Amino acid sequence: MGAAVSGGEAIPWADANQVAIALVNLLDPGCDRIEIAGSLRRRKPEVHDIEIVAIPKVGTISGADLWGTEEPINWLDDRVGSAIDARLLMPRAVTEHRSDGTTRVGTRMGSAYKALEYGGMPVDLFTTDADRWGCIFALRTGPGDWNTRLVTDCKRYFRSVAGGRVLHFGKPVPTPEEEDFFRALGVAWLDPWDRHVDSLRFERPSSGGLVTPPSLRETFGLDDPA
């Protein structure tokens, strides 16, 4: 299942960017890392929404029982909840596409994706972890047709993208930075504003490159023979 994100009115980049920066400042205390993605990052002259990628700050707090037993807390979720209570943020209804082909309109406030409204603009807040940051940040920067071409064509080079990870013969490759994501797929680096289908280039495979197929022993995690 997925949600139809975006859909606001066209707003000049400078105006939308100011709103996005204010939102980042609001949420930043609850994050280990937070960045603006989407069309704002690509510097489109006009944008329709704000996309944010964040790594939540997590920890523990004393519970309400007599012993003050520690309980886990996601500080980003706590920050979002407080902002909603203060009516600085609002949950936003989106169209959910179900696996059976039906659709449902409703709010989305999950652990990995929240549909919100801030400063009169639609906001898509995506959360990830440090190992997958580079992959999620790149894909949420887009554009969509570039993403589609990227994850389709990389299969010719023994790569795939699933669950926010790059997989090489089914084995996950950490992508803590966006540069790691490009390198793991064997794609030449492109600045966000230069990313479009015609500019996508995969590096030529070589014996020392990442696109060289591993041996069967490496693929199935077997120890080398003595």
Describe the structure.
- By secondary structure, the protein is of the alpha+beta class.
- The chain has two domains: 126 residues, 2-Layer Sandwich (Beta Polymerase, domain 2), CATH 3.30.460; 82 residues, DNA polymerase, thumb domain (Beta Polymerase, domain 3, 2-Layer Sandwich), CATH 3.30.210.
- The protein is 27% helix and 29% strand.
- The protein contains seven helices and 15 strands.
- A five-stranded mixed sheet has the order 3-5-12-11-8, sandwiched between helices. The protein has a three-stranded antiparallel sheet with strand order 1-9-10, with no helix packed on it.
- A hairpin with a 7-residue loop joins strand 6 and strand 7.
- Helix 4 crosses helix 6.
- The protein starts with a strand and ends in a 7-residue tail after the last helix.
Global Rg: 20 Å
What is the CATH architecture annotation of the largest domain?
2-Layer Sandwich
Distance between the termini: 48 Å
Question: What is the percent of helical residues?
Answer: 25-40%
Residue stretches low in confidence (pLDDT < 50, at least 5 long) are 1-6, 206-226
Residue-averaged pLDDT: 86
